[in-house]
Design a protein that fits this description.
CATH architecture: Sandwich
Structural class: mainly beta
Number of domains: 1
CATH superfamily: Immunoglobulins
Largest sheet: 4 strands, antiparallel
CATH topology: Immunoglobulin-like
Length: about 100
């Protein structure tokens, strides 16, 4: 019986960005957002869904009011490849999100 070993690489193709992010409650209406994208992102733009935005791979944001917000992350690499991922978060009246949330493929 003949056999062979086939290596498996779970990394995305070179130059490909697959956008993803996590959201973790800090306190009150404050949330920590972290880039979890695959690929080598070098630029990040956030839309927090409340009319404000931010940049960087890891950002904190405080919402003025409880409610549901659609958060968007735009991630781009040095080859100008980019992707956007969106996720809905709910900031409850008691200011506690619960567990960390993940948005991505």
């Amino acid at each position: 019986m003949n056999s062979c070993v086939i290596p498996v690489n779970n990394e995305p193709l070179p130059g490909v960005v697959i956008a993803a992010f996590s959201a973790t409650h800090i306190n009150g209406n404050s949330v920590h957002f972290k880039d979890e994208s695959w690929g080598r992102s070098e630029m990040w733009k956030w839309d927090f869904g409340d009319g404000t935005s931010g940049s960087g791979n890891s950002v904190d944001h405080t919402y003025s009011n409880p409610g549901m917000y659609t958060v968007s992350l735009w991630a781009r690499n040095n080859l100008s490849q980019s992707q956007v991922v969106k996720g809905d978060i709910t900031v409850p009246v008691n200011g506690k999100l619960g567990n960390s949330l993940f948005f991505g493929p």
